[in-house]
Design goal:
Low-confidence stretches: 1-37
Order of helices and strands: HEEHEHHEHEEH
CATH topology of the largest domain: Glutaredoxin
Strand content: 15-25%
Structural class: alpha/beta
Mean pLDDT: 75
Largest sheet: 6 strands, mixed
Number of domains: 2
CATH class of the largest domain: Alpha Beta
Number of strands: 6
CATH architecture of the largest domain: 3-Layer(aba) Sandwich
Length: 176
């Protein structure tokens, strides 16, 4: 093969690799601009699900919930917190079922803030949350505090089945 052709091919490959790396770096830089407390959740029809994470810079759950309540208010939605854990089977099933039309209807008009109880740990006690089992839902007040009436004890409403969970969730959200 011609040496000039090989040189041209090598220069092209090096240039293409450099462009690719710089584009990936730019994409990574774009991703770091997101606040440390938020994780992008899938889009849902008629409601918002926003995951907040505890980080060394963000350990104040009351402040985080207050900020989320303000976002909900700006969207004309009611804010609720969804307490769960990554190891919780019923929690995983509930999340999996969110795309079900029955569940979408139950959540419609609400802004759900997803909080992992293991990640936030003892910080959750600061909001005086009346939750003794997960999954659980509580209304978030404008100041970031939690309404004392929670929806918990999933064994009473079978979160794994949209046909039984959706009516209970809908009634809870409507009443708060």
């Amino acid at each position: 093969m011609n040496k000039n052709l090989l040189r041209s091919l090598l220069v092209f490959l090096l240039f293409a690799g450099a462009v690719s790396c710089s584009e990936n770096g730019a994409k990574q830089a774009e991703n770091t601009d997101k606040p440390a407390t938020e994780t992008t959740a899938p889009a849902y029809d008629g409601f918002v699900l926003n995951i907040i994470s505890s980080t060394p810079q963000n350990k104040d759950i009351t402040a985080a919930l207050k900020a989320e309540a303000a976002k909900a208010k700006a969207k004309g939605m009611k804010p609720f917190v969804f307490f769960h854990a990554s190891w919780c089977g019923p929690c995983k099933q509930l999340i999996k079922n969110l795309k079900n039309p029955l569940m979408t209807g139950a959540f419609k008009g609400n802004y759900i803030v997803e909080v992992d109880t293991d990640e936030w740990g003892e910080e959750i006690q600061r909001v005086k949350c009346p939750v003794n089992s997960i999954p659980a839902f509580c209304r978030v007040e404008d100041d970031g505090s939690i309404n004392s009436q929670s929806l918990t004890d999933a064994s009473q409403w079978d979160v794994t089945n949209p046909e039984t969970a959706a009516p209970v969730l809908k009634a809870y959200f409507a009443g708060h």
